[in-house]
Amino acid sequence: MVIFFVVVSLLVLLAIGFVVPVLLKDAELEAETFDEQNIQIARDRLKELKQEFDNGIITESDYDLAKQELENNLALDLSVSESASASAVSTGASKNLAFSLLIIIPVAAAVLYYQLGEFDAITGNVETVTDSMPQPPNMSMEEAITGLKARLKAEPDNPEGWFMLARTYAAIQQYDDAVSAYEKTLELVGENANLLLHYADVVIMSQGGRMTDKAGDAISKAIQLEPENMQGLWMAGMLASAKSDYKQALTYWYKLDPMLDNDINSQTQLREQIASAEKNLSSDSLSVIKRDVAVSSEAVAKAEITVHVSLDDSVKDKVSATDTLFIYAKAMQGPPMPLAAVKHSVGVLPVTVKLNDAMAMMPAMKLSNFDQVKISAVVSKSGQPGMNSGDLFAELGSVAVIANQKVSLVINQIKK
Question: Which domains does the chain possess?
Answer without folding.
Answer: 2-226 (1.25.40.10), 305-414 (2.60.40)
